[in-house]
Design goal:
Length: 225
């Protein structure tokens, strides 16, 4: 008998947030007011580089960010961390709007600890998310775990153990939470309905740093100069 022991998997947390239909459409309308359509571009409209990078400060979004905060704490609790010792901060938050054919190219959020995508509006084929790893722990030869090796039939059973990019199809109303350092991108929106997502970068600090060498100390103890 033989078996694999899978070690050090990336754990992406997914959860459906309860949002009533009226509130959902109110937030969609607010985001579509911010959007400046860019019809000929392959890339989606990104609110963080268009002057709308602090959505959590907008009163309309307060209830949503309360739910998101609960989901983030749910994720760290489910991972096995002690939330009583940690403080969580939304650092930057923005919306994205992907029109037909548009997508978001591969990137990571190096300036924060946790990131998420909340799908405020998304239909099936509206563009799911790819998660990638630069160095897959199982990829024993460089370039072995790419999609082209699947097409060339070097990879017989594509999956998490043999590919460096995995597709996830989230549903409208779902949030996906993951470490900010994780490479991710989206599939193109294959529908005529816009896909609207909300993201934020989160910083996690210690509440009390005495005795700790690593992790950020509480922001109240920092000194700006
Ligand atoms: Fe992102």
């Amino acid at each position: 008998m033989s078996e694999f022991i899978d070690l050090f998997a990336l754990s992406v947390y997914r959860q459906k947030l309860k949002l009533d239909a009226g509130y959902q459409s109110q937030l969609c309308n607010r985001i579509l007011e911010m959007e400046r359509p860019q019809p000929d571009q392959e890339s989606a409209w990104l609110g963080d580089t268009a002057g709308f990078e602090f959505l959590f400060r907008e009163p309309e979004f307060e209830a949503l960010f309360t739910s998101i905060g609960d989901a983030i704490r749910g994720y760290t609790e489910a991972l096995g961390l002690n939330n009583d010792r940690l403080a969580f901060y939304f650092q930057r938050s923005w919306a994205t709007v992907s029109r037909e054919g548009q997508r978001i190219f591969e990137h990571a959020h190096q300036q924060s600890h946790l990131s998420f995508a909340f799908y405020l509006k998304k239909s099936l084929d509206g563009g799911g998310i790819y998660f990638s790893v630069a160095e897959h722990p199982n990829e024993f030869a460089a370039g072995l775990f790419t999609l082209s090796k699947e097409e060339l039939q070097i990879i017989k059973r594509p999956g998490e153990r043999t590919l460096n990019r995995i597709y996830v199809e989230p549903e409208q109303g779902e949030i996906l939470i993951f470490p900010s350092k994780t490479l991710h991108s989206t599939a193109p929106n294959m529908t005529t309905e816009p896909r609207i997502s909300i993201s934020a970068d989160i910083v996690v600090t210690l509440k009390e740093s005495s005795g700790h060498e690593t992790l950020m100390p509480a922001i109240e103890n920092w000194q700006r100069f």
